[in-house]
Every structure is written in C-alpha cells, then in structure tokens.
Specification:
The chain has one domain: 2-Layer Sandwich (Transcription Regulator spoIIAA), CATH 3.30.750.24. Helix content is 46%, strand content 23%. The relative contact order is 0.16. The chain is globular. The protein contains four helices and six strands, in the order βββαβαβαβα. Strand 5, helix 3 and strand 6 form a beta-alpha-beta unit. The protein is α/β, with parallel strands linked by helices. The termini are far apart.
Length: 139
C-alpha cells in the first residue's frame, strides 16, 4: 500500500514500500516554484524512507522549462545522487515525442550515475525496478 509523500494540483508523490520506491505521477504541466517543490518533497521522501527506486510518470508533465531543466541538472540531481539511496530510475514518458526529448535532455546528465530506463507503463516500471533490486542484492 503506497504511503503518501506529497500531493498538489499538479502531482501526486508516494512511497511504495514493497519496492522501496518513490513514485511521481504528474497530473499536468508544472514549472518554477511548484515544479521545484514537488521534486524537493520527493527527495525528502527518498531520504526519509531510504528509497532505492524512483518512478516518474511524466506523461502529463509536458516540456520541462529551460530554467527548471538547468536547476534539476545543476542542483537537484547532484543532491539526489549524493544524499539518497536512489539507484534506479524508471521514466514513463508516453507517446509525445516532445516530452521524450525534454526528459531525455535531463536524464542524459545522469547517465552512468544511476541506472535508468524509459518504460511504457507504471506496472512495467515497478517490475523493472524490482528486478534491478533483486539483481543488485544477488551480486
């Protein structure tokens, strides 16, 4: 059963204890303060619960603003990588090419620093993260 972490009119953030994962489900476009607040809340949740996985369902988020992209890459991601246990990030972008390009620009900055994958559904993301966690434990 997911544990609520944060909710606003643009996003629902929860923790899924069975797969030790923070789960974002964006409801609409967000930028600036509301975008940053949502990501900060998720980071706090990841630290609090010692999450190792992250699911970002960004299908409804749309294109990430250039200033927000820069903030994610230079401020937020470094803090996520150094201050949490997140090792696996699954992203659900949906069919919109512009969303894939926008999120791809962000994710390219963390290549090699965490294991990430683009998937089509939240269920596929859950299965992938669980499999990655099992492989890491058996290594």
């Amino acid at each position: 059963m997911p544990t609520p972490v944060f909710e606003s009119d643009c996003v629902v953030v929860s923790y899924e204890p069975e797969i030790q994962t923070i789960h974002y489900s964006w409801k609409r476009f967000a930028k600036g303060a509301e975008f940053k607040e949502a990501l900060e809340q998720g980071l706090e949740g990841a630290q609090k619960f010692k999450a190792t996985g992250w699911i970002g369902d960004v299908q409804q988020l749309g294109v990430v603003d250039e200033a927000d992209t820069q903030w994610v890459n230079t401020d937020w991601f470094p803090r996520l990588l150094s201050g949490s246990s997140i090792s696996f990030m699954a992203v659900i972008v949906g069919p919109r090419a512009i969303t894939k390009m926008s999120v791809g620009a962000i994710m390219s900055k963390v290549a090699g620093k965490l294991t990430n994958k683009y998937l089509g559904t939240v269920e596929e993301a859950r299965e992938w993260i669980a499999a990655e966690q099992r492989m890491k434990k058996s290594a």
